[in-house]
Amino acid sequence: MKKNISRHITTFIVSGIIITGALAQNKPGNNEVINIKNNREFFWDETMIDVSKTTAKPKIHQFVRRERVITHDEPWEGDGCNYHNFICDNGLYRMYYLGWNMISPDGSQHTLSGIRVCYAESKDGINWVKPKLGLREFNGSKENNIILDKNDNSFDNFFVFIDENPTCPAAEKYKGIGSVGDGLWCFVSPDGLNFKKGWLLTNKGQFDTMNVIIWDAKRKKYVGFIRGFHNMTDENSPWTGVRDIRYMESKDFKNWSDPKLLDFGDADDYPLYTNCVSQYYRGKHVFVGFPSRYVERKEWTDTFDKLTGRQKRFERYKISPRYGLTITDCVFMTSRDGYSWKRYDEAIHRPGPEEPKNWVYGDGYPAVGMIETPGNYPGTDNEISMYMFTNHWMGIPAELYRYTMRIDGFVSYNATYKPQILTTKPFIFEGDQLFINFSTSAIGYIYIKIKGEDGNEINSYELFGDKIDRQVGFKDGTPAQFKGKPVVMEIKMSDADIYSFIFK
């Protein structure tokens, strides 16, 4: 399969880490001293890892499905409720999503007509309500949660964020991003409910899935992640064309750079749909993304006859073959600069055990955003909650489910029962004590050694357990003695995972 060909040599300064040339691939050289300051660092890429001295391996972890949080059973919602995204606004979670029926009433065609932008909110991320806003009329009544409809725009997606740029006017504090015709436009609002159409952002792209824009406070610029499309030239590729994700940036939200295809290094080039990119809330120097992967089989086969949901799938197939031949899942990717990414090709979310309403085009589209919620059992650490919908294209009300993941837990470095080592590259830190996010079995363990460039070192006591923020005790000193000085950290593990660390 043809590899991703977009590769640029440039210089970035990211959170105190100077990265040049090939280092833009999230791989600083082994001789470089990385200044992590007081950032939490994650083992999601090789930025911190000396791979030549590391025998532990990265391991991707799966989301766990929890309860249904929203049933989209109002007549204006339908089976096309998707592209959910939400913001945290002074303790209130505010969710935006599309509502429409995917198939025309006579069953003859897929339709984008009558798409509405709807709103829900929650105080805890678990219990969601659809308030009656009185903003838009549907079938003669304003008793609904619609904030925008066909009178405002023919929506195909809509993403909302709070603009934290200190120069942003109050009337534009909430910005909505949606496709209008062949372009990507912004909508502005003073309150997150009453939006008006603003201005064109770019017309260089495809835009027919969720497009995301973020205010990057560290770099003092807006960064956008939008949908594009490129053709394959490799005659051996199973893909005739590739849906892709592109990066653009702006200082003023009006003048944008030309979108550039994300750089995945030498990873396989295959179709990606929604991007679901955000800055990670526990380390905003790191971007995370959960793109849905678009997989279109070439023909109807015996497996499709046996796969769940055959009747509805075949109805869609007759409208357009790809509507029945396509299935989707979700992968994980991470970046330090927003442009060069480490992507894991093993799914972070699979369609799962077959039931009548899954294994369809639309599985694995996460909502954009994450919420820290209480652990599933009393007294346990908090978890990350994310959300995905089901019943897509099924002619029945779509449903939104909550999924959980360990905090920082998308990828760990893992050791089997046979002891293995993770060795970092040289780095400088601020802080006096080391805290780690880790998990072991009953027989498993972790030992940590911190070594200074002068040959001095300190060694931890044995660590075992399962905590997202455990202080590491040392036998022969404290991390404070190395503060501001280059060190290397050596982690010896057996039947264990380590997810992140921070010096406080």
Describe this entry's structure for a reader:
The protein is mainly β and 504 residues long. It has 2 domains: 34-60 and 413-503, Jelly Rolls (Sandwich); 64-408, 5 Propeller (Tachylectin-2, Chain A), CATH 2.115.10.20. The protein is built from 3 helices and 34 strands. Strands 4, 5, 28, 29, 31, 32, 33 and 34 form an 8-stranded antiparallel beta sheet that branches. Strands 7, 8, 9, 10 and 11 form a 5-stranded antiparallel beta sheet that branches. A hairpin with a 2-residue loop joins strand 7 (85-89) and strand 8 (92-99). The longest helix has 10 residues, at 310-319. The relative contact order is 0.16. Mean pLDDT is 91; it is low at 1-28.
Tally of structural domains:
2
Kindly, what is the distance between the CA atoms of the first and last residues, rounded to a whole number of angstroms?
Answer: 45 Å
Into which percent range does the helicity of residues fall?
Answer: under 10%
Average predicted local confidence, pLDDT: 91
pLDDT < 50 runs, ≥5 residues: 1-28
**CATH top-level class of the largest domain:** Mainly Beta
Q: What is the fourth-level CATH superfamily of the largest domain?
A: Glycosyl hydrolase domain, family 43
**CATH architecture descriptor name of the largest domain:** 5 Propeller
Radius of gyration: 24 Å
Give the CA-based shape: globular
Major pleated sheet: 8 strands, antiparallel
**CATH third-tier fold name of the largest domain:** Tachylectin-2, Chain A
Structural class, by secondary structure, is mainly beta
- Hey, roughly how much beta strand do the residues contain? 35-45%
Provide a count of the helices. 3
Q: Number of DSSP strands?
A: 34
